[in-house]
Amino acid sequence: MRGSASVAKSAPLPISGFIEFLPEQQLILQEFIRRIRAAYELHGFSPIETPAVERVEVLTSKGGEAAEREIYAISRLLGQQDGAEASDSNLALHFDLTVPLARYVASYASQLSFPFRRYQIQKVWRGERAQAGRFREFYQCDIDIIGREQLSLLADAEMPAVIYDVFRSLAIGEFIIRISNRKILQGFLRHYGVDRDTSAAGLRVIDKLDRHPPADWNKVLIAQTTLSPDVVERVTGFFFGAGGATAETLQWLKDHDANADKDFALGVEELGVVVKAVGELGVPETHFKIDLRLARGLDYYTGTVFETLLVGHEAIGSICSGGRYDDLTGFFADEKLPGVGISIGLTRLMAQLLDKKIVKPRASTPAKVLVTSLDKKHLPDYLKIANALRSANIATEVFTEEARLGKQLKYALRKGIPLVIIAGDQELSQGQVQLKYLTEDFAQKDVEEIPLPEIAARVTEKLRVLGLCGIAW
């Protein structure tokens, strides 16, 4: 009997760490990307896209052994074949967008205009253990400003200005941008006799102190670093003593004993320039603050550092971070190219916002209107109505299956389509349609009679009045 041989079926399970959103969630993700892109371009950043794969030696140029453990190598399923390039065996998926940027800038330096302002929104891959808020495939949304030999501190100040515009546009709640300068803590520790290696390890622990109650900071630093108890007392005293408004904190830093260290003094000076310019760029002080505990764990950063938190949801962690680095392309070229940048881990952010119900999906379709079908003979009329709405840039779906009107209305309700058009023999013979704003009880008071020539204008106005022109969350 034909077809009698059974075929083993694979379980349709998603791969751990590789997230798949439902349509209503994906719509929000895409709208986030659109708004982030718009904010980046508003500040004059140009888009680039680099390949998903890079040569292994490129990816390991800055990350070292820690990065190597997370890099996904790629290979052909059946191995090297005749005619295949030998270099194919030395490729891997990129684990961030900064290393590819370094390679890109080194490759095209003669064709780029400096300072080079780029944004990049792409997926990256990391082979780390999948857990809540951690993924092995995720979107990053980065911007960087790269200078040639030098880069003004005003570039650093632009980062909080962009962050401010991005998160106001996303409308996910109040946020605060934390700002500091790594030179301050480095100089502070050196002033009290801490060597470079101990300082670097200490900064990584200091950067995570927010995970513990302030009363435990001394115990954490003593347990997780080789800092002496006397230095630990000075460090925590430094953090507790630096509270207050921006101007007060800067003055307190200038008066501090550690100001005798050249790096400390330079860090304080740079921080003062940056926060002054941040205010001049239109970011209110309600949305940024100096936080000297901020170190960013990566030794990669050499000056200004940033981190953004959602007020009331600090447990989510940083929703946007970054900082200043001295030389982007040292591994690829002799020319010094300093830069500053920030990154939004968008997939992680989206997952957290959905989990905390900070964003709540409204619709599983971009369609704002469903044209119902009451009689197949009127299908040409329904298609003309849909075309008129689409010509007015109104996302529209036509219900083409045979079903009772009640079923069609429930279909629209389930997908989150707010408006439906109903037209049968009577309405079409009179040159009009019914427009219904869909509510849970299908209340008849929400029905309007609209002449056919006015459909697009009246639907546009209805969507505006109801506040449904964009995606609500």
Global mean pLDDT: 89
Tally of domains: 2
The fraction of residues in strands falls at 15-25%
Helix content: 25-40%
What's the arrangement of secondary structure elements?
Layout: H1 23-42, E1 46-47, E2 53-55, H2 56-68, E3 91-93, H3 98-108, E4 116-125, E5 137-146, H4 153-170, E6 175-181, H5 182-191, H6 196-206, H7 217-224, H8 229-241, H9 246-254, H10 262-280, E7 288-290, E8 304-310, E9 320-325, E10 339-345, H11 346-355, E11 369-371, H12 379-391, E12 396-398, H13 405-415, E13 419-422, H14 425-429, E14 432-437, E15 447-451, H15 455-466
Parallel strand pairs: 1-4, 6-7, 11-12, 11-13
Antiparallel strand pairs: 2-3, 4-5, 5-10, 6-8, 8-9, 9-10, 13-14, 14-15
Helix pairs in contact: 1-4, 1-11, 4-10, 5-6, 5-10, 7-8, 9-10
Structure, explained:
With about 475 residues, the protein is an alpha/beta fold. The protein contains 15 helices and 15 strands. The chain has two domains: about 25-75 and about 85-355, Bira Bifunctional Protein, Domain 2 (BirA Bifunctional Protein, domain 2), CATH 3.30.930; about 370-465, Anticodon-binding domain (Rossmann fold, 3-Layer(aba) Sandwich). The chain has an eight-stranded mixed beta sheet with strand order 1-4-5-10-9-8-6-7. Helix 1 packs antiparallel against helix 4 and helix 4 packs across helix 10 (about 260-280). The chain is elongated and about 90 Å long. Keywords: Aminoacyl-tRNA synthetase, ATP-binding, Cytoplasm, Ligase, Nucleotide-binding, Protein biosynthesis. It is found in: Cytoplasm.
